[in-house]
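Dear support,

I submitted the protein below through the web form. The confirmation email said the job was done, but the results page showed an empty box. After a refresh the structure appeared. I'm attaching both so you can tell me whether what I see now is the final result or a partial one.
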Amino acid sequence: MSFAFTMARVSPLETARERKTALIVFGMLVILYSFIFILLTLNDYAYLAGNIGLFMLLAVIMRLSGKLELFKKVTLFETADKKDDLDQIE
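What the results page shows now:
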């Protein structure tokens, strides 16, 4: 029920960027609801499947966060040097 309401809310978006975001949200909701449905249908192995799913989610988050440079310090002079380098290339 909430799935259909969510898709009705995000479907009339007009720009390409908003459509891409809507498709990403749609895909994540499909995966989430499918995973919850599978967990509810499994009686004996629900705990094992839930732990495997959480482990896979943790692996994805670790992979994505490893690509971020959260603590890189950039000084004012470094950005000015990079801008000068870009001006010389053009």
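Response: this is the final, complete result; the empty box was a page-load delay. The chain is about 80% helix and 0% strand.
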